[in-house]
Amino acid sequence: MKRYPFNMEKHQHDIFFRRNRALNERDAKRQAGTITDKEEEQYEKLIGELNHLLCYPAGIVYLTGKEWALANETANWAGCMRG
Fold first, then answer.
1. Which tens digit of pLDDT belongs to each residue from 51-73?
2. 3-state DSSP call for residue 58?
3. How far is 8 from 24, CA to CA, in rounded Å?
């Protein structure tokens, strides 16, 4: 399986940011009673995948294609959210 380099030290805070935002959004929808089963599953999947990325140590790590895509998407997302 091919692995791709990713700088976890530089982007770990982006992953924390997205995970925490997803947790907060999910919890807010739960409290309001507006979350659907499909949305709940999507939040759980995203939060689980982000938690898995956070298991890697800081520094340069080698991720699978799917992990690398999520990590890059998250870094871009965080940059857009911060403005």
1. 999 999 999 999 999 999 999 99
2. coil
3. 23
